[in-house]
Specification:
2 copies of one chain form a homodimer. Chain A is α/β, with parallel strands linked by helices. In chain A, 42% of the residues lie in helices and 15% in strands. Chain A has a 6-stranded parallel β-sheet, sandwiched between helices. In chain A, helix 1 packs across helix 2 and helix 5 packs parallel to helix 12. Chains A and B meet through helix 4, helix 5, strand 2, helix 6 and helix 11 of A and helix 4, helix 5, strand 2, helix 6 and helix 11 of B. The structure holds a DNA duplex (16 and 16 nucleotides).
DNA sequence: CTGAAAGCGCTTACAG
DNA sequence: CTGAAAGCGCTTACAG
């Protein structure tokens, strides 16, 4: 692989001059520039970005650490991040922690060794975020996506889970539901107050909050299935359920099927994100239109801004969500008998 | 950010010694080693991998270039690749070309500048792969995934599309279909002979191949929709359709809906991959279980092997696929009238 | 075992 | 404009 030295030799100029025609910072006479460019062509020279990074202390690399690529909306987020990165000439190193803190810790450390210019993070569910704090303090900017890390004061961009929860509860209550379940993720992670808002909105409707109808588990399909079976085994099972994401919703649907129940007749269902296939499910999924692309996109923008200006104030961007009503919430049907229970 | 020099100074040893305790290659006395390790702890020292890469000419970075992250199976593939990379201490730089050759060309070039140790590639649809050939010749190994690049003799791992096509056609013919459509991707890409096998299997059943029922377009949902409308407007429309992936299938389902047609009653449908939601669609999707995880996983293994031994023979790995029969192919229903046409 | 030194391929003041 | 040279932070023969 050709080096700048070889290019310089063949073009009969100094390496500095080659560097100057490449970077365009310092002007180079037309004659030399053309000579250099021609040699670069001939040699199919690709400047060694590693050497460059070492020198200028900048890698144009961003680490993107996500918690679960099984969740289809993650891809929208990735695409959003990539789009912003592309425009700024950055590249993405991507990881999936599978929500395991040890893996996250390992990746963050590896990313620090690689001197990425910044990190985008969907934190794994865990109460210990020392490694994130350490990374920040060492000078590498990190912006949190989807989940806010309590106590860390980082840039973050999240969806408005409070508003989302409120919209869901209002919708379900308006359909006559009073026993509403919630399948949520790790309670240690701030997700914009989904749980809190859920509870509060219920109480505004004078519906007592029933702790037994809330299950905090993972966010995978299997978690939805297991939590679903658990919820369905309650003596007073819910007549409607909110699932923190569509994967949980799919899992819950499986649990219902296994229990011989149908949706929405027996139990209505709403998910907190809206993947491409939601409309084609059976029943089609009432869902919150989750702004995953925007979260990735604005997260990256925010990160790039902080890289340029590390001193700027921390910001928290909250993106609106809106309810897309389809069949699974049963809105078009009359409520069935179980609704009229006390 | 601490450097090896600072660590050496504080531990009162040479930088070479620090390097030796880090790498473990050259033995270091227990006394010095412990002193060094302690300082590393204190300083929260993260060895600069950039400098290391420059010196040892190895980045432990792999470029993964995919054609469309909208396709949910891509994520399985990514996870497969990541799993193998993780075990070998490699990291992934990920790109989405959106099937645009200019983007692919740009990324390949950027990746060469970054001196990645190898590339995993789902090629964009295009007949010109000079940039890939150039990368290979310059000494960076690339293995092709999902699509074989004709004329390039690269390592590749693909699903057995021939067998898949054969299984689909056999299944549909056994249900009485004789007018079978195919929604495929770019014809310039070898996908293991899906199209060819489709045609051949039809002919084995003495069913004339009808060029008008085959549409080569992109692989996105929109492509499925548009190609679907086109197909449905044929004077003799098909009674069954094969879609090259589930995104196309979703698009086609949309086209059917828009045309007032239902699946499988009016037209049966099979997709060539099997995403997590296939079972929950309405109708549930008969599909080929596409080994995406394995393709990513074995692709990465193959790449790592070639990195270690650049001289080894090129291999082509073909992974089996098998048909998962659900509702959309209409297997459980009796065929309707249109079937009995000549 | 340990240290001093060269070198990986760039960029960037600094002289001219 | 152009070139010679120092230096980014490591690794690795080479002496001792």
């Amino acid at each position: 692989m050709a080096t700048i030295k070889e290019v310089a030799k063949r073009a009969r100029v100094s390496v500095g001059t080659v560097s100057n025609v490449l970077s365009g910072g310092v002007p180079v006479s037309k004659r030399l520039r053309e000579r250099v460019l021609e040699v670069i062509q001939q040699l199919d020279y690709h400047p060694n970005q590693i050497a460059r990074s070492l020198k200028i202390r900048q890698t144009n690399l961003i680490g993107l650490i996500v918690n679960d690529t099984r969740n289809p909306v993650i891809f929208d987020l990735l695409r959003g991040a990539e789009e912003a990165a592309w425009r700024a000439n950055y590249m993405l190193i991507v990881f999936d922690t599978g929500d395991k803190t040890e893996r996250e810790r390992h990746f963050v450390s590896a990313l620090r060794s690689r001197r990425v210019d910044g990190m985008l993070l969907i934190a794994a569910g865990s109460s210990n975020h020392d490694h994130i704090a350490a990374a920040e303090e060492s000078g590498i900017p990190v912006v949190c996506l989807e989940r806010e890390l309590s106590g860390l004061n980082l840039d973050c961009v999240v969806a408005d889970a409070s508003s989302a929860a409120r919209q869901c509860v209002n919708h379900l209550v308006s359909l006559g539901h009073r026993r509403i379940g919630l399948l949520d993720g790790d309670p240690n992670l701030e997700t914009g107050g989904r749980h809190m808002s859920f509870r509060q909105t219920l109480e505004e409707h004078n519906i007592p909050y029933d702790r037994a109808l809330v299950i905090h588990r993972g966010l995978r399909l299997e978690d939805g299935f297991e939590a679903g079976l658990e919820l369905l085994s309650r003596e007073q099972r819910p007549t409607a359920v909110l699932a923190a994401n569509s994967l949980l919703a799919l899992g819950f649907l499986n649990a219902m099927k296994k229990s011989g129940l149908t949706c929405p007749e027996d139990i209505a269902l709403i998910a907190f994100d809206d993947p491409i296939f939601a409309e084609m499910l059976h029943p089609s999924l009432t869902a919150i239109a989750h702004p995953a692309f925007e979260i990735g996109n604005q997260g990256m923008e925010l990160l790039l801004k902080r890289i340029v200006d590390p001193g700027q104030r921390r910001s928290k961007i909250v993106l609106g969500s809106k309810l897309v009503i389809r069949e699974s919430s049963g809105s078009s049907r009359t409520r069935h008998a179980s609704e009229s229970r006390p």
